[in-house]
Every structure is written in C-alpha cells, then in structure tokens.
C-alpha cells in the first residue's frame, strides 16, 4: 500500500504556533523532508518542528538552487518529486516541511502538483502565515469591516505604481530585503509610510519590530523580513 504525501506548514518560527493537526501528522511520519541551503545552517522549518518528530523517522534535507532560472528549478523539483515517490511506493508516509503556510509562496506547491498528478494521495496541513503572526506581534490589524488587503511579494511588486495601491486599506510586503529602497519608496508614494511596520524573524528569539520606517532607509534588513502598512488617514 502506498504512503501518503503531506505538506505541513509549521508557521513562521515559534514552535508553539505549530497546529495540533500538524503535530499529529508529524508524530506518525516515517520520512520528513525539509528545505536546506546546504551551507551548514540549520533548516528553519526543521528547527521549528524537530520536537514533534519521532525517533527513528528518516530526515532528508532538500537542496534547491537559489536561482530564478526556471529550467534549473524544474529539474530540482523533478528530482525531489522522484525521491518522494520512492518513499511513497515503499508505503512510507512522507512529510515535506515548509515555513508559514504550504499554499502561500512555498516550494511545496511545485511538489504538490507533481505528486498529485502522478496519482499519489496528498494532504496539505495549513500553517500560520508569517504576516498574520507579524500583525499579532506588532499589534497592527490587517483588515476591518470591508477593507481590502494587498499581499505583495516584492519580486513581483517592483513594477507596481502607487496608484495600484489605491483600492487597499492595508498592504503586506513580503521578501522586502531584496529591494528595501524600492519598497519604501512605493509605500511613501502610496500613502502608507507613517503607518508602516517592519517585522524581522517573526516568532524567533531574535524577532525585531521596527515602527519607524524612516530609520530603515540607510540600512540592510534580514532576509526574513516583511512590512505591514496601513493607509494614512487623509
């Protein structure tokens, strides 16, 4: 009998934010795959989940190239999918860990589509998204009443105009470390600057919350940083 493939979101960093369902799945996992840079650094996803993984479970790092080259990424996803399929064919329930939520800008999405298309049983366990945890940590409501919220990964946001933010009362900017200057410029032009907050390493021991965006204009920020911003009252 084939095993089941699980995509498990473990939240942004605090192990206490891992859901009960995720813990149940992890406790009966036979194989756990986790993203790794291969640079000697501990996987963030594994660090969050490790206390819930049973002894004897096979731990397998997944090395994915840090590139936007679609061909290289496709080959990497295909390779990992074959590894997962081998475990499933042996009847082993296999988990892929992901920080935050598996269905939000996650590598899991590419594995999910391949494994599901191949006819295997797949289940996705949601996790707390980083921007939701960050909003709670910062005390900043994301949406009230019928307000609209924009969620923008900055790699896709570089071509946005300030006018494109007009329909939104709140904007969430992800991956801001890649071009902090550009993000801050858009936030300022769109009228969100004075009510913007940067959160780095949300849920980790070294979590940092910056409520004065002007203090960031000459600084680099951590890779795991995002900005939450509400529109200024006119």
Task: Describe the protein.
With about 230 residues, the chain is of the alpha/beta class. It has two domains: about 120 residues, Tetrapyrrole methylase, N-terminal domain (Cobalt-precorrin-4 Transmethylase, domain 1, 3-Layer(aba) Sandwich); about 100 residues, 2-Layer Sandwich (Methyltransferase, Cobalt-precorrin-4 Transmethylase, Domain 2), CATH 3.30.950. It has seven helices and ten strands. The strands form two sheets. Strands 3-2-4-1-5 form a five-stranded parallel sheet, sandwiched between helices. Helix 3 packs across helix 4. The N and C termini lie far apart (about 60 Å). The mean pLDDT is about 95.
Proportion in β-strands: 15-25%
Q: Helix fraction?
A: 25-40%
- Rounded average pLDDT: 93
Termini separation comes to 62 Å
- What structural class do helix, strand and pairing data support? alpha/beta
Instruction: Determine the number of helices (DSSP H or I, runs of at least 4 residues).
Output: 7
Number of strands: 10
Overall shape: elongated
Task: Write the CATH fold name of the largest domain.
Answer: Cobalt-precorrin-4 Transmethylase, domain 1
Number of domains: 2
Which residues form runs of ≥5 with pLDDT under 50? none
Give the helices and strands as they follow along the chain: EHEHEHEHEHEHEHEEE
CATH class call of the largest domain: Alpha Beta
Radius of gyration: 19 Å
Largest sheet composition: 5 strands, parallel
Widest β-sheet, arrangement of strands = 3-2-4-1-5
CATH superfamily of the largest domain: Tetrapyrrole methylase, N-terminal domain
Known CATH architecture of the largest domain: 3-Layer(aba) Sandwich
């Amino acid at each position: 009998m084939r095993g089941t493939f699980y995509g498990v979101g473990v939240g942004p960093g605090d192990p206490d934010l891992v859901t009960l369902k995720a813990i149940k799945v992890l406790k009966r996992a036979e194989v756990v795959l986790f993203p790794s840079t291969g640079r000697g650094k501990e996987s963030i996803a594994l660090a969050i989940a490790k206390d819930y993984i049973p002894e004897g479970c096979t731990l397998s790092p997944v090395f994915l190239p840090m590139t936007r080259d679609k061909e290289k990424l496709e080959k990497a996803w295909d390779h990992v999918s074959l590894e997962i399929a081998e475990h499933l064919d042996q009847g082993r329930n296999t988990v892929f860990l992901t920080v935050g939520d598996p269905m939000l800008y996650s590598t899991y999405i590419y594995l999910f589509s391949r494994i599901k298309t191949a006819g295997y049983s797949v289940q996705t366990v949601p996790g707390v998204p980083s921007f939701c945890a960050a909003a709670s940590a910062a005390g900043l409501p994301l949406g009230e009443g019928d307000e609209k919220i924009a969620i923008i990964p900055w790699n896709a946001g570089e071509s946005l105009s300030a006018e494109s933010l007009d329909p939104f009362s709140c904007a969430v900017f992800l991956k801001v470390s890649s071009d902090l200057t550009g993000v801050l410029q858009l936030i300022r032009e769109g009228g969100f600057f004075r009510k913007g907050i940067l959160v780095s390493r949300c849920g980790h021991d070294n979590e940092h919350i910056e409520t004065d965006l002007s203090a960031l204009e000459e600084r680099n920020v951590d890779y795991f940083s995002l900005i939450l911003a509400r529109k200024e009252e006119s």
